[in-house]
Amino acid sequence: MNILEQIVANKRREIAAAQAEVSIADLERRPLFSKPVNSLKSVLKTAQMPAVISEFKRQSPSKGIINGTVRPEIVTKGYADAGAAALSVLTDKNYFGGSFDDFIAARMENPGIPMLRKDFVVDAYQLYEARAIGADLVLLIAACLTPAEVRDLSRKAHDLGMEVLLEVHDEAELEQSLCDSIDMVGVNNRNLKNFVTSVDVSLELAGRIPDSFVKISESGLKDAATIWTLFEAGYRGFLIGETFMKTGDPAAALRGLQQEIVNSRAPKHA
């Protein structure tokens, strides 16, 4: 059993325990459940420059503790002030050190910016959880789901008012999982089975993602030159976490990258 399979098996046990304690009706009564949704798709479709989706992540299976002392409300407010297009907050506890408390703290501090619940969604119950903590969009990882599950979960997310980011790692996942209820396609440059990272994955898949879907590149993004190359290839959003979180001041790291992006040579078509 690889690490991804271990995470999903643990996640299903977590869901069963959560459902035994909190009903969907209870989740629907939470104050944030009816919060108006901030659209990331709209932000990215009109982006004239690379748009950074900044992530709050305490740890990961491959890196261990990345930054265990930071507070989500402070880091994410700093991200927003530094020009982040959206925020991603991990809610998986066992493998990434995240929590609903982290997400809600970030949500309350940043009511007007799109926020992604970053987790391993394998059951519709988690979509109600996401809405209840104020998420604007959810992540569906193709490697964790069948094409039918991607279709059903994405439609349910839309029914609940949220947008959907489909994450793929290769052409097979893309072809099998893409459907009309997906809003954005994220190409993860990190293989979740062995955690090897290469931005060539995004470049290889860029032309295979239909232009009707907003394109996002994820993981392994560290410099403005690479980001501009991917922007020219059609990507509009760039999800970055570890590059920022491993520093003493994640927001300052984002500001520095934003300045590099602005100062870099503009893409040929700009």
UniProtKB/TrEMBL annotation:
Protein's pathway: Amino-acid biosynthesis; L-tryptophan biosynthesis; L-tryptophan from chorismate: step 4/5
One Pfam short name: IGPS
Catalytic activities: 1-(2-carboxyphenylamino)-1-deoxy-D-ribulose 5-phosphate + H(+) = (1S,2R)-1-C-(indol-3-yl)glycerol 3-phosphate + CO2 + H2O
Gene3D superfamilies documented for this protein: Aldolase class I
Broadest EC class assigned to this enzyme: lyase
Regions annotated as coiled coil: 1-30
Domain of life of the organism encoding this protein: Bacteria
Ranges of residues in domain Indole-3-glycerol phosphate synthase: 4-256
Entry-linked InterPro entries: Aldolase_TIM (IPR013785), Indole-3-glycerol_P_synth (IPR045186), Indole-3-glycerol_P_synth_dom (IPR013798), RibuloseP-bd_barrel (IPR011060)
EC number(s) given by UniProt: 4.1.1.48
Keywords, ordered alphabetically: Amino-acid biosynthesis, Aromatic amino acid biosynthesis, Coiled coil, Decarboxylase, Lyase, Tryptophan biosynthesis
Family from the record: Belongs to the TrpC family.
Protein name stated in the entry: Indole-3-glycerol phosphate synthase
Organism, scientific name: Ravibacter arvi
Gene it is expressed from: trpC
